[in-house]
Structures are given as C-alpha cells and as structure tokens.
C-alpha cells in the first residue's frame, strides 16, 4: 500500500494534477493522510483523509470539529514535542499502517523554516530508516532520499536533477549522467545542481559511503518569467 | 555601501515591495547586481544593474546583447566551474566592491536545487567569512547566517522564526525567546521551527560553539489558503 500525505504548504506549489493523484489513490485504496491543516485542505478537495495527524493549533474550532466528524483515525500531537507532526505521521504510516512507500505533498513553498523541516527530517534517526521510501512532490520538483551504498537512479521525466549531500558524506560518485563526480567527500551540505540524465530513458549511478544524499528532480516553469511586474 | 543582488527565482516569491527597495537603493548609490537572468529581470523592473554576473546560458542572444549594452561591469562565469554564479557574485561584491553587506533577492521558490544552493552556499569556505553580512529576502521570509559565538538577535517584524543548524553544531543555546534550547549539539542539519520573539521589540540570544546556524524569520501569507482549487 502507498500512502499520500498532504501537509499545509501553499497550493501554488502543489502538483498541478494533485486532485487526479489523490482520486486515483482513493480508488486504489491507498492510504490518504492529512497533516494538520492538510486535513482541511483535503476536505476542500472533496477527499476525506483516512488518517489525520497534527496539533491542529492553526485550525478554528469549527474546522477541527469538521475533521473530527469525518476522519476515521485522528491523532493529536503534542505542540511541545519530540517529533514534528510530519515526523509523527511518517512513523504512524510505516509502523502502524505498514505502508510500502509515502508520497508527501504540500511540503514546499511558503515559510522556509517549514520547508527545511520537511526536507531535512529524513536525517532524524527515527525517520532515517524510511527515507528511501519517501518522495516529496510539488509542481516542479520531485525529491528522493538515499542511504549509503550503490544506487541505480531510474530515469524520470524531468530535464534537470541536483544531488545534495544532506550531511557529511564520503566518496560521493555520480556516473553515467551528463556531469560526473568521483569520490567526493564533504563535511556539510553541498548541492550539485542542474545535472541532467545522459539520455532520455537512461538511468544514472549514484554511490557514497556515509551520510545521506538527496536527488532533486526538477523542471522550469515558463510562467515564472511572464508575469506582470 | 550595501549591495542588492537579484537572482533568477520566480517573481511570486519576491518581496512585494521589491521595486521600492531597489529604487531606494539606486537613490542611495548602493550597488545593484544582477545574477544571470536576474540582470534581465532588473531591466524589466526599469533598473539597470551596476554589475552583472553569470554564464547567461539561459538567455537568448538578444537578451544578452541588451545586458551587454546597458550594464557597466559584466562578468562571465565558466559554466563548468568551481563557483556558482551566486558564489562568484558574493566574492566580487565583498572583495572588489568592498560592500559592507549584501541583500539577496530572487533566491527562493521554483527549482529546489537552486534554492538549496543559495541557502547552503554560505558553508563554502570561500563564502563563509561573508555569511554574517548576507541576508536572503523574499515575500514572507528573511534569512540570516551566524558563525560560532554569542549573538544578540535584534527583533524583526516577523511573527515567527526558525533556527537551523546548517552543519554539525555544538552547544546551541536559544535564550530569551518564546521557546528555549540549551547546549544542544547535533551532527547534521536540524531545524527548530515556529519559535517567536518573547515580546514585540525584544531581542533574543543565540550562541553556539562550532559550525553555522541560520535564523529564518517568517510570516504566514493569508492568500495561500483562499485560492480556488
């Protein structure tokens, strides 16, 4: 079973086909999760989440009452806590619901402290073990996470990808892509942006010995340069 | 002298008053810099940059010709290079133009590999020495960087702030804010989001012994929750 979780990030950054993604998930009996305000945003899309997680402190009383009425499994997190709402959601999805993978929507845009929490929570020792099964997806980016070892990165229909060391990493090698990197070690996050697949349909190889690496697949959106000032 | 640099990030994330900011800078004879497509975006705002830095590989020939015609100091970076365009810009601003501080605009939104480059380039040993003099500014966030030591963080007119360890950090302490933290050490990036100033106008204290820390001041934007689906 796949899980789809919607966080509270701005709608402008959601995948353009988010409603189709979620309706298809619902038809497949995948798990649909709302995190905090994400539960309300799912209801606005006409989709009742199977599971809601949050402290709900940003919701009005009537909004929370609506969720409590419709959602079968509601979890209340502690506002002053060891886990963020998203971290708690990941643990419940993998440990209790035993999902095989998790697609996180609404994780980007808006407040940058929120985005960085979502991007870097995979480093939390209690989340790390699930990181390779988690994808962050928005309108123009898809983010995957990798643990040490040798990886074949499947071709994706995005013109660019960046490789980010999220922590100290040893012997990072990128092979069979447009730009190569060999046995690179670094003690802090560094981002190799704007790499490309060597050819349409062609995988590339990624390997490293320590830490965590993220691959960010991305595309440009034309709209950005054609707005009125 | 202050420098203002515009990168190529999407306009939706620019400060709402970006034109006023730049016109005021121009009147003050501050340095205005365009990085790659940012030079063209400045011209679209009616502001000719004093300095342009980039490889310009995303520009059309006529667009590049326009910049070459109007900008007094143009620098061409090498597309396969040791420094990104933004890193090169920072070095030129501080080393050649001897600016006192730098405000970076257009650094957020859009392609996440690009944003992460902008966020984490301060860790580059050649940029690190300037990091405390650099601010990233967008529509709802202001990002500052701190080196080890004791810091009094001046009150800012933002309701929230997050504290992010950008690398391994020792003995991180946050005092005199809404939520405290004492002597926290961590080997990788971790974000303490949604903290608040204790009172309007009241500073807080930040100290740590190793690494680099960023403070992200932020506000919510109502618009995010009132769009049509």
From TrEMBL, chains A, B:
Gene3D superfamilies: Thiamin pyrophosphokinase, catalytic domain. One of its GO terms (molecular function) is thiamine binding. The keyword Nucleotide-binding applies. It holds the Pfam family TPK_catalytic. One of its GO terms (biological process) is thiamine diphosphate biosynthetic process. Residues 149-212 form the Thiamin pyrophosphokinase thiamin-binding domain. Keywords: ATP-binding, Kinase, Nucleotide-binding, Transferase. It is an enzyme of class 2 (transferase). SUPFAM superfamilies: Thiamin pyrophosphokinase, catalytic domain. Coiled coil: none annotated. Its EC number is 2.7.6.2. The keyword Transmembrane does not apply. This is Thiamine diphosphokinase.
